[in-house]
Specification:
The chain is of the alpha/beta class. It has helices at residues 11-23, 36-47, 87-104, 117-128, 140-153, 189-200, 204-210, 215-229, 274-294; strands spanning 3-7, 28-32, 54-56, 67-70, 109-112, 135-137, 162-165, 171-174, 234-243, 249-260, 263-267.
């Protein structure tokens, strides 16, 4: 029997719960939210689908879950300039969540969704005491999907495109591995900068138009859950707490990671070209500072 706990049943948490049920990703779903009336509404809405999956609001069952999705807290609005600006608002919620991890005996995999995701993933790993392989942050899959869309819109090759860095202003699109691009040399710096800027601003029209991104994140999160539950061992861009990989430690940052039933099974190091290395160094500097504030 597989069990998923969703801690925070707002737009993304609720959509992930529905997708997990529809796709049959798990046998049981535990849902939790700070607002009891809202949680009850989400519970009723889910069970009224008639899908054959056990859904409960009993958070005491979190301890036996395979995966807990952390999606609680304050979301980005048009008034919030960057994801990093949410750190102080969401840290108290993270610490309460970590207390529940400890008291429940949960020893599965945490997927961090709430922003600033990288720093909060780092904080969850340190405060919960879970192994770093059990704490992974979501965001890279969405950033990579956007990158490929923007390349395709320009009629450019996108097979082999990748993403590293922060899920935010310091995301680093990787062009050097794109097939048929002469090792990325067919992507001049000006074009790379243009695509990177477009990626940074990709979510804001959605936030302004309907209050937040939902479908894209939820779809990719459901795939991440599937990779863990079914032990797919796929290489997926995830935020991981590093301890020597890429010569780094003291932060969580998006890198290529092999994801399976134990969470992060392997961090796959890859070479970067000069443009990528410079921007990845900038992301490292930024996230070391941000993760330091989260400790």
């Amino acid at each position: 029997m597989s069990r998923l706990t969703i801690y925070g049943m707002g737009k993304i948490g609720g959509e992930v719960a529905c997708l997990a049920a529809v796709r049959g990703l798990v046998d049981e779903i535990v849902i939790a939210d700070a607002i009891p009336s809202f949680l009850n509404a989400q519970y009723l809405d889910l069970i009224h689908t008639g899908i054959d999956v056990n859904i409960t609001t009993d958070l005491s069952e979190m301890g036996e879950s395979d995966i807990t999705l952390f999606a609680a807290g304050f979301a980005r609005t048009p008034q919030v300039k960057t994801r990093a600006d949410l750190l102080n608002l969401n840290l108290p919620i993270v610490r309460e969540f970590c207390s529940r991890i400890k008291s429940s005996g949960f020893d599965g995999t945490v997927i961090t969704v709430t922003n600033p995701m990288d720093a909060l993933n780092f904080c969850i790993q340190k405060e919960s005491g879970l192994p770093r392989s059990r704490c992974l942050g979501f965001g890279g899959q969405l950033d990579l999907a956007r990158m490929k869309i923007f390349l395709k819109e320009r009629g450019l090759p996108y097979d082999g495109a990748w993403i590293m860095g922060e899920h935010g202003e310091f995301q680093v699109p990787l062009f050097s591995g794109i097939s048929g691009s002469n090792g990325g040399k067919d992507f001049p710096a000006a074009l790379r900068d243009e695509i990177q800027a477009q990626m940074r601003g990709a979510s804001m029209p959605i936030i302004q138009g309907k209050g937040g991104t939902v479908f894209g994140p939820a779809y990719h999160i459901s795939n991440l859950i599937d990779a863990v539950i079914r032990d797919k061992r796929e290489i997926i861009p995830c935020s991981c707490v590093l301890d020597g990989e890429f010569g780094l430690s003291g932060l969580s940052i998006c890198v290529p990671a092999r994801i399976g039933k134990s969470g992060v099974e392997e961090i796959v190091e890859r070479p970067l070209d000069e443009w990528e290395s410079e921007r990845f160094a900038g992301a490292v500097k930024h996230l070391k500072e941000l993760c330091g504030k989260a400790e």
